[in-house]
Amino acid sequence: MFVVAIATGVFYRYGMLTPLPGGLALPNVRHAHSHLMYFGWVTPLLMVLISETVAPQRPFGRRLVWGLIALAVPTWALFLRYGYGVVALGEARLPLATIFSSLHMLVWYAFAAAYVRATWGMRRTPALRVWDVALAFLVLASGGAWARAAFVALDVRDPFLTTAAVHLFLDLFSDGWFLFALLGVWLARFPALWTPRLRLLTLGMAVGAPLAFLLGVPVALTPPHVRWVASGGGLLLALGCVGYALALWREVRGVERLALFFLVLKATGLMVASLPAGAMWGEQVGLRIPYLHWFLLGTVSVVLLARYAERFPSTQPAIRGLVGAIVLVQVSLLPLTGVWPAALGGAWRLWFAFGAAFIACVAACWVWMTMWMSRRAGQYAPAPIAP
Ligand code: HEM
Predict the structure, then answer these.
(1) Cβ proximity of 17 and 354 under 8 Å
(2) Where are the domains of the chain?
(3) If you measure from the C-alpha of residue 71 to the centroid of ligand 1, how many angstroms do you get, rounded to a whole number?
(4) Per-residue pLDDT tens digits for 325-367
(5) pLDDT, tens only, 248-306
(6) What are the distances in angstroms from CA 368 to CA 4, 6, 156, 300, 362?
(7) Which residue has the least CA distance to atom 19 on ligand 1?
C-alpha cells in the first residue's frame, strides 16, 4: 500500500510537469494519495501493532485489518478516477469514493469494539491508557466526516462549520488517532518513561488534540474567541510532542531519532500556527504540505518502518535507503513554498520534487522486495514487535 500511495504522489508531481493521461485531474490524484496513506498504510499497521502488543498469543482484529486493506484498493481507484464526484450507475448517480470511505469507518468501529472486548478488565498499562484515548479519537474524528455529510444533506453552507467538519476528520485523525497510537507503541517498549511529568503532558495533549484541529481552519473564517481556544489546544499538543521527543531521545537509536526530529518540527509548526499572525503567515507562504509531511511521513511512517525493520532484519539497508529518500522528499517540498527566495525559483523545483518522490518510490519498492524475499526464505521474526 505504501508503495502504491507513494507512486500516486509521484504521479501527482508528474502531473505538475505535464497534463496527466486519461483526463485524470490533479485534485483527484491528491485525494487518492492521501486516502490510501491514511486508510491503507498507517491505520492498518497501527492496528496490527496495537493488537499484537495487547494479545501477543491471539492478536484480535486480523480479519478487520485485512478488510481495511481490501477496501483501501477500490477506494484509492475511485478517488483517482472520480474524486468526490458522482458516478452514474444506471439511473442512479452515486458518490462512490465517499461511500467506500464511509465503509472504512464501520470497520474502524468494529476494531474499536474488538479492542474494548480484548482489553476489558485488563490492568491499564501506560500503553493501554494512551491507546484507549487513540481509539476514542479515531471514533471522534470519524464524526467530522458524518457531520460533513449531514451538512450537505441539510444544506448547511456556513463556511466555518463546513471547513471545521473537514478538519475535525483530517486533523484529529492524524493528531489524535495516529499520534496517540504512536505514543502507545513507544510506551509499550519504554514503560519507565511514564513519569508524573510525562503523564501530565499526555493529559494536556489529550485535552489539546480535540481543540487544535480548529487551527486548520483559515484564520479569516474562524471567530476570534474560537481561535484562542484552538491556540490553547495547539500549544498543549506542541508541548507534549516536545516532551515526548526529549524523553525518548536517549531511548531510541538511528532512524527513530530522525522521527523525533520531525516530531519537534511539527511541534514548532503547531506553536507558530497557534498565533493568528503565525497561522496567516503559514497560509500565505503555503507551508501546509511540508507541515503535514513532517509528521505523517517523517515521524509516523519512519517509526512504522523502524518497527518492521526489527521484524525483517534483512530489510535494514533498504529501510535506511528509504529513510534517506524521505529526507530528500522533505527537502524538495521547501522550494515549492513561499519561504524559498523568489530569485532562486524556476521549473527545476518541480523536477526536484518529482525526482525526490520518484527516488522514494524506488526505495520503497526495494524495501518491499527484500521483505517479500525474507518472508519466502522464512527469515523473519513473527513475534510481536513490542514487548
Ligand atoms: C514519499 C512519500 C510521499 C510522497 C512522495 C508524497 C507526495 C505528496 C504530494 C505530491 C502531495 C500533493 C502536494 C500538493 O498538493 O502540492 C501530497 C499531499 C498529501 N499527502 Fe503525501 N506524500 C508522501 C507521503 C505521505 C504520507 C506518509 C502521508 C500520510 C500518512 C501523506 C499524506 C498526504 C496528505 C494528507 C496530503 C494533502 C492532501 C490534500 O490536501 O488533499 N503523504 N503528498
Answers:
(1) yes
(2) 1-122, 123-301, 312-387
(3) 20
(4) 999 999 999 999 999 998 888 889 999 999 999 999 999 999 9
(5) 999 998 899 999 999 999 999 999 999 988 988 998 899 999 999 999 999 999 999 99
(6) 11, 13, 45, 18, 10
(7) 34
